[in-house]
Amino acid sequence: MIGGGVVGSSVAYFASDLCPGARVCVVEPDSTYEFASTLRASGGCRVQFTCPENIDMSLASLAFIRNFSKTMSLPDRPAEIDWVEGGYLFIVPPAQLKALEANVGIQRSRGCEVNVLSPAGLKERFPSISVDGLGGGALTPRDGWCDPNGLLWGFRRKAQAQGVTYVDDRVVGADVTATEVKALRLASGTRIEAAHVVNAAGAWAGDVAAMFGMPLPVAPLRRFEHYFTAGAPMERLPYVKDLQRMAFRSEGAGFSGGVVDGDAPRGFDFDVDHGYFERVVWPAIAHRFPPLEAAKCHRTWSGLYEQCELDGNPVIGRWNRRLRNLYTVAGFSGHGMMHAPAAGRAIAELIAHGRYTTIDLARLGYERVEDNVPYREKGIL
Ligand SMILES: Cc1cc2nc3c(=O)[nH]c(=O)nc-3n(C[C@H](O)[C@H](O)[C@H](O)COP(=O)(O)OP(=O)(O)OC[C@H]3O[C@@H](n4cnc5c(N)ncnc54)[C@H](O)[C@@H]3O)c2cc1C
Asked: Would you say the C-alpha torsion 53, 59, 63, 65 has a positive or negative sign?
């Protein structure tokens, strides 16, 4: 595994589970995870997608996450992830209501619990909301959020307990033939031979893929997350999202979230724009929830989305047309924490059985990149 964030650690855990006796090794240069996306994530997990693969990965991952502390605790170490079943609420203007209802139809057909709320229903349920300009909303009550740090370390510790080795080093090159990867070269000079290699390097996955001669359209996209409190008492909110990419939820005595700027320049930029909350986030949240007129931002941090520039969906699978033992699991574009359990298991299935045995993720494979055929989500990102 190249990269030991939540995705690489999930692959490592499932690989050691599905391939007993295999020697599984994760190369991760920074075990403090200072810049890793996982530790900067907001923790949200939701089923409100439109691609069946994303919905199915969410359902499987949510089931795994709900049971995480039971499945992943070690005799001497609990695996707490502070799961909060706070729900997700997508809100749309009248012109988008039909599309939202169509999305809900897809979600229900795959077994999701979703309630469609009228503006009056929204107001009754969430008294602070202003329903001005809203056609309705979709509430998924079994969605929620967890602690991304706990999730990553739960996977990592359990993987280590199952024999996985974490190597404190950086992959800087690879030895490849015309059809397969033979070995990885590390910054320390060490060479690791491997039968299977997995690129799980998050926002760095594009650079890592280039070491194998693989063009992977995954780029770092800076996103701000803010912790803020209301000026007046308010009810607790689910994870609220709208079409302008406002996204926030209750957290402790306040709220956590922001407004995603999908046009932010790509690059490894962690600088914080301290004017962003007042300029962009505050007008959006105060318009929709008037008690947030007097919101106070206490902290802003930045992190990277590993943005798939082709279509915003992850690339998951083997490089079937060239290096057949090189696997990619990256480009989640803001959904990698919630999909880490299912995606990790999927890659482990490919390694162990040569095919998917639980969720068929073939449509998320690298072939769509090679053929330049985007596969997009239709719902809110
Ligand atoms: C502000 C913010 C909020 C978010 N909110 C959510 C959310 O609510 N829900 C959700 O599901 N997702 C969310 N995300 C997205 C989520 O954080 C990512 O999709 C997820 O963490 C990706 O995990 P990863 O393991 O692939 O990447 P990372 O956690 O970044 O791990 C990649 C690892 O690869 C290592 N690496 C890099 N280069 C090399 C190399 N050459 N050799 C070896 N290792 C290398 C890095 O050191 C790093 O530790 C959010 C992201 C941000 C920034």
From this structure: positive
Give yes or no for a contact between 293 and 286, defined as CB atoms under 8 angstroms apart.
yes
**Ligand 1 pocket check: which of 47, 204, 250, 302 to mutate, most ligand atoms within 8 Å of Cβ?**
204
For residue 166, give the 3-state DSSP assignment.
Answer: strand
Is the pTM here over 0.85, yes or no? yes
User: Ligand 1, closest atom to CA 301?
Assistant: 1
Q: Is 21 exposed, middle or buried (0-12, 13-18, 19+ CB in 10 A)?
A: exposed
Q: Is 337 in the pocket of ligand 1 (CB under 6 A)?
A: yes
| pLDDT of the residue at 20 | 87
Contact 222 CB / ligand 1 (< 6 Å)? no
User: Residue 368: left if φ>0, alpha if ψ -120 to 50, beta else—which one?
Assistant: alpha
| Residue 127: burial class (beta carbons within 10 Å; 0-12, 13-18, 19+) | exposed
Ligand 1 centroid – CA 20 distance (Å): 27
Instruction: Kindly give the residue spans of alpha helices, DSSP state H, lying in the chain.
Output: 6-18, 52-66, 68-72, 97-109, 119-125, 148-161, 205-210, 276, 282-288, 336-353, 367-370
Kindly report, residue by residue over 313-369, the tens digit of the pLDDT. Answer: 999 999 999 999 999 999 999 999 999 999 999 999 999 999 999 999 999 999 999
Is the CB–ligand 1 distance for residue 42 below 6 Å? Answer: yes
CA of 341 relative to ligand 1 center, distance in Å: 14
356-378 pLDDT, tens digit per residue, is 999 999 999 999 999 999 999 98
Instruction: Supply the pLDDT for residue 232.
Output: 85
Q: Is the CB of 7 under 6 A from ligand 1?
A: yes
Contact 18, 349 (CB under 8 A): yes
In sequence order, what are the residues at sequence separation of 6 or more whose Cβ sits closer than 8 angstroms to the Cβ of residue 354? none
What is the β-pairing status of strands 136-140 and 144-145? unpaired
What's the pLDDT tens digit per position in 60-72?
A: 999 999 999 999 9
Distance of CA 363 to the CA centre of its chain: 18
- Paired sense of beta strands 88-92 and 239-242, if any: parallel
